[in-house]
Design brief:
Elements: H1 5-32, H2 38-66
């Protein structure tokens, strides 16, 4: 089965967006943490959870699409002579 590069690219973009949201919310919280009120802190927490959700979603779909656990090399079986 040929994996669609566009699908893999989209999953990488979703995961990257999730990671960007998590990093941005954590850095805003560190820089302005003492000056934030309760609503802003709650918003940053939601942003962090949304980023985590996107990251987990992208990893889950990637595992379902690529299935790396089905194809792996067994180190106990020697490779073919022309195997590079």
């Amino acid at each position: 089965m040929q994996l669609s590069r566009l699908t893999l690219y989209a999953l990488a973009m979703v995961g990257g967006l999730g990671m960007t949201l998590m990093i941005a919310s954590a850095s805003i919280g560190v820089v302005f943490g003492a000056d934030l009120d309760a609503e802003a802190t709650h918003g940053l927490g939601l942003l962090l959870v949304a980023g985590l959700f996107l990251m987990v979603l992208a990893i889950g779909f990637w595992l379902g699409w690529v299935r790396p656990f089905q194809r792996f090399d067994d180190i106990n079986i020697p490779a073919e002579a022309e195997h590079h």
